[in-house]
DNA sequence: TCGGGAATGGCAACCGATTGCGCAAGCCGA
DNA sequence: TCGGCTTGCGCAATCGGTTGCCATTCCCGA
């Protein structure tokens, strides 16, 4: 251990409830009731015990308590990272929604256990870790393997998922309207005179697939055929978006708009264009998805489909706590809107 | 609860070790030893028990285990957000380092409990939450109130901090060399012909203060006096950086370089300049701090002082686990280097 | 003075695992 | 055949709280 640490103060420091009880001259059960605020302890006894607890720096042992009460007051949050790309988590979208979840949980007196591995993945280890550590689970993203998630949710009742309302699922979801988001982006691009669109994103990913679908559907009746629209499937990260975009336009592509599945990808795409001397938005318009905090401050400002992470986090927590309370969770679809900034301004 | 869920399969599902023991026809203790891999259980008994566990879907109860073993196998990670700006957490720097910490902990079989409130803050509640939930604590950032953190660490031995080696502290730190980082930025700016520097960041924040100090010290002997250098103190977020930069240059400032305390701030500053028609790097060079994943992909690419979050996370975990193992933690200073990209290329 | 009931507090079982210690069976050599 | 040693397994205590139920005290009216 470290040296040179000052001697700890010599006041009484209690480790267990029994010690408190001993000093206070009451039974453990009375201490427990005093803490719980039971009305079966007189006001003065209660006050005396609480003061003693405060002075002695005693803190309740949460494991012992939760062993007895059968609740952990902990919610596990799982990021559905893909096996191939663990860095996915560094997307600010995740930190924003986790921050919101963390705040809501704290307000309700719950802890937040963060997992990066899928507990529904293969292998007993993953499953072992997932059980009995938390009262409920919030999963961020349905990922590329919604069936596995579904099987997991079937066996574990207290699961709420950030994602899309896909049919046949065994869990409640909170999320934006991905198809609408895609359609909003598509309409806006068409309206600003774009004709040859590129979609950047992994359509095998449930939510991304819906965004693509929305984009394509918004094209009907506009005179733009979907075979003018290029769909480039790629993982969820900046490097792939940069490389793909760069290769596409180095090849002399004549596309005039990009819709990316995330802001991170959109920002990287803009950079690829810029490196090639292609102007944004004059030559190519770019729209992202998420509206991360940074979207407003990159150069040029990023037009994007907003997912309200603050509201999303709150809704997820509300949902999971209502399941714990025995109530049925309801699906929540958050308002989904396009935020127009420079990267997709009108053609000059 | 939800309706329409398929009936759960009718295989035997064990909830407790006692049930396993009963079915296997052995004592609970034998089951426990079989799981722990004790050599006091014969190979065939062990195999029989493990197979039964696997088939029955039994998962050990981590609270009961940790109550008995007196260890939680959980590490708490605390983000030193400021009271005034809770959104601070959305900085990708934090998510990157948390991702790395999470991976290292998982490799070592530890869970990650995420806290956003300072457990060393005022109020018994905050303290209550902090105790006995985890075996150790990793604090990200010393923040603006290192004394409070110090007092906290005095009472809680198993604390490791991401931050700077300030004197008198009661904890071990892992971090970059902030003064060196500041100096590297300063030297590079001078070398590329810049003379009138601006520093953006809250110097009351321990690490930021050191970065500023490093910048100023690198100026000696260069002919640039420190009173040519402007220090603008501001919180740690994009909006403030944008506003401050914009106001400064709207006022017709003749500064030719900005060094920001974080990449997020640098990116926002670039945007403010761009909105005013100031060219980066031709008119003003910009250097950030952190080298977040996005720094490489923004437009223009961000020159920045790299903090290796992957190595940092690993070192933090190694340190806290070594304290738990009874060994003394050692301070770790990570390699600190400047990554030059377009935002501070040579003057054209 | 005595019985009844409200108010307060204590006893002990319990949550689900881990582990020191003791016991029984099997094996060996003498 | 017998004692001693090794190996495998079970008993029961234990971790630190919570809570049903019973015991005690006190106050009051009859």
Summarize the structure in words.
2 copies of one chain form a homodimer. The first copy, chain A, is of the alpha/beta class and 348 residues long. The first copy, chain A, has 3 domains: 44 residues, 434 Repressor (Amino-terminal Domain) (Orthogonal Bundle); 129 residues, Rossmann fold; 138 residues, 3-Layer(aba) Sandwich (Rossmann fold), CATH 3.40.50. Chain A is 40% helix and 15% strand. Chain A contains 12 helices and 12 strands. In chain A, the strands form 2 sheets. In chain A, strands 2-1-3-4-5-11 form a 6-stranded parallel sheet, with helices on one face. A 6-stranded mixed sheet of chain A has the order 7-6-8-9-10-12, with helices on both faces. In chain A, helix 11 links the parallel strand 8 and strand 9. In chain A, helix 5 crosses helix 12 and helix 8 packs parallel to helix 9. The longest helix of chain A is centred in the N-terminal third of the chain and has 16 residues. Chain B binds a DNA duplex (30 and 30 nucleotides) through helix 2 and helix 4.
How is the topology of this model organized?
2 copies of one chain form a homodimer.
Chain A: H1 17-24, H2 28-36, H3 43-56, H4 62-69, E1 74-79, H5 92-107, E2 111-115, H6 124-130, E3 136-140, H7 146-155, E4 159-162, E5 172-176, H8 178-191, E6 197-200, H9 206-217, E7 230-232, H10 238-250, E8 257-260, H11 263-275, E9 285-290, E10 303-306, H12 309-324, E11 332-334, E12 337-339
Parallel strand pairs in A: 1-2, 1-3, 3-4, 4-5, 5-11, 6-7, 6-8, 8-9, 9-10
Antiparallel strand pairs in A: 10-12
Helix pairs in contact in A: 1-2, 1-3, 2-3, 5-12, 8-9, 10-11
Chain B binds a DNA duplex (30 and 30 nucleotides) through residues 15-18, 26-33, 36, 39-42, 45, 60-70.
């Amino acid at each position: 251990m470290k040296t040179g640490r000052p001697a700890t103060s010599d006041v009484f420091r209690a480790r267990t409830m029994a010690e408190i009880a001993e000093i206070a001259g009451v039974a453990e059960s009375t201490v427990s009731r005093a803490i719980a605020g039971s009305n079966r302890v007189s006001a003065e006894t209660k006050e005396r015990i609480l003061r003693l607890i405060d002075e002695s720096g005693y803190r309740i042992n949460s494991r012992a308590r939760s062993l007895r009460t059968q609740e952990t007051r902990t919610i596990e949050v799982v990021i559905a990272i893909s096996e191939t790309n663990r860095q996915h988590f560094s997307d600010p979208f995740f930190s924003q929604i986790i921050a919101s979840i963390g705040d809501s949980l704290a307000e309700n007196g719950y802890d937040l256990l963060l997992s990066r591995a899928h507990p529904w993945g293969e292998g007993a280890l993953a499953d072992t870790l997932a059980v009995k550590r938390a009262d409920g689970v919030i999963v961020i993203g349905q990922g590329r393997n919604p069936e596995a998630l579904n099987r997991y949710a079937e066996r574990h009742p207290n699961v709420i998922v950030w994602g899309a309302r896909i049919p046949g699922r065994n869990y409640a979801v909170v999320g934006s309207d991905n198809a609408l988001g895609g359609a909003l982006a598509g309409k806006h691009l068409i309206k600003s005179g774009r004709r040859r669109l590129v979609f950047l994103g992994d359509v095998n990913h449930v939510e991304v697939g819906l965004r693509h679908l929305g984009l394509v559907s918004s094209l009907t009746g506009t005179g733009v055929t979907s075979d003018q629209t290029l769909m480039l499937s790629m993982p969820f990260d900046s490097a792939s978006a940069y490389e793909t975009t760069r290769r596409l336009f180095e090849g002399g592509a004549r596309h005039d708009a990009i819709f990316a599945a995330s802001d991170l990808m959109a920002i990287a795409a803009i950079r690829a264009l810029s490196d090639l001397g292609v102007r944004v938005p004059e030559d190519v318009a770019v729209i992202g998805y998420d509206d991360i905090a940074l979207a407003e401050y990159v150069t040029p400002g990023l037009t994007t489909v907003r997912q309200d992470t603050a509201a999303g986090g709150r809704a997820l927590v509300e949902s999971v706590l209502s399941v714990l309370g025995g109530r049925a969770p309801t699906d929540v679809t958050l308002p989904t809107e396009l935020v127009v900034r420079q990267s997709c301004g009108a053609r000059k």
